[in-house]
Design goal:
alpha/beta; homodimer; about 35% helix; 5 strands
Chain lengths: ~230, ~230
């Protein structure tokens, strides 16, 4: 156990990060888990999912970081109370109001700082290019550029690889792969609106529900009536 | 005034950021100022300098962000109370204990998020490659890579340029250029150790003092006896 290489997994509490944890575990790393509270409306529920997932994957090294600045800065319906969370429009090509500017970059830079202190050699992030909500910082081209920033901006002896194991998967495939890997989806949360029962209507619920429906599998979390 | 392009200036309260503000002003931008409190030991003094510099440059749009995570993560004598701040060794090629892992990347990602919300087209950062303390994320090669991450990780209509106007200058040249531009160095702070009188001994004091001495100019801030 002592000589295992370390990896940081970004665990938001959503399905993607849960599947990512399973990948990192399978790759043989000793895991450390990072969770960001960026003032999102459903943080209490997401934090609980984070803790449950860490327990499930026996992760002792946990770091929860408050990044209030993302709500100070605003611009997103997820963090700005003045902006309503709109219902999903999965056919639209526009970047939705839930977009938090440069969020993945913020998450990753924090992870890189921690990785350099921990001596971790990999950072797992559950970004998806195809089936995301169209956010620019979920694309391979962004991660490739960011990797270069990491290589040039850290100590010469530091080698940190950004890993995006599910970037090419659809939500449906993530659920399928996750099921096969034994991911406890009951300990994950996707809804942007509610910490009680999931609304079933926001972008994130819509993507999740569509994935489960396409596979004909029951989603074990609670939804408001009608979903 | 209304149609001026906006730029964010990162104002730590140090000399470099003060000179950077002068450059941004000269370049004709309407300025917004970002200051980060990362739990450094001298924050109270630095924040005061930030406010004074904003007043001096008539900057109304000010954002002070707490990034406690950098002290949570630790690893630097600037933020970790368990690590002593060592006296300067300007001849050493080693990265000193004051290095905050990936700090500039963290600062810049926050600035980019804010820039995207504000519609700012430039971010000024007072990084210096040659005369820095040997931190990897003060090098041109890092900023070039980070610029690509910005281009790929923000909305297609967003164009944010990272500007490093003093990157090729020495501390001596910064003071010289700053003097010519009327930069109020009495409103800047460099010492890593003290918020009262500057210690004169830490890396940052040593670089500052050497710069003023080389130019034969008096530094107007207070130092402990003997400097």
């Amino acid at each position: 156990m002592k000589n295992k290489k370390k990896a940081i997994v970004l665990i938001s509490g959503g399905m993607d990060s849960a599947v990512c944890s399973a990948y990192a575990k399978k790759d043989g790393y000793q895991l450390a888990a990072l969770h960001l509270n960026y003032g999102q409306k459903t943080e209490s529920k997401e934090l609980k999912c984070f803790e449950n997932l860490c327990d499930f994957y026996s992760i002792k090294d946990r770091l929860v970081v408050d990044v209030d600045f993302l709500s100070q800065i605003g611009g997103s319906s997820l963090t700005d109370k003045k902006i309503d969370i709109s219902d999903a429009d999965l056919e639209s090509n526009e970047i939705p109001s839930s977009y938090v500017p440069f969020r993945n970059a913020n998450i990753l830079t924090i992870a890189v700082s921690w990785a350099e202190v921990l001596g971790a050699e990999a950072i797992y992030i559950g970004a998806m290019e195809e089936d995301s909500s169209g956010y620019p910082d979920t694309r391979k081209i962004f991660f490739k550029a960011f990797q270069k920033a990491v290589n040039t901006g850290t100590k010469p002896e530091t080698n940190i690889e950004i890993k995006t194991p599910i970037i090419d998967l659809s939500k449906k495939e993530i659920i399928k792969v996750g099921k096969n890997m034994g991911v406890p989806f009951q300990h994950t949360w996707s809804c942007y609106k509610s910490s009680g029962k999931a609304c079933g209507k926001c972008d994130s619920c819509a993507l999740r529900l569509r994935g489960f429906q396409q596979l004909g599998i029951k989603d074990l979390i609670d939804y408001e009536d009608g979903f």
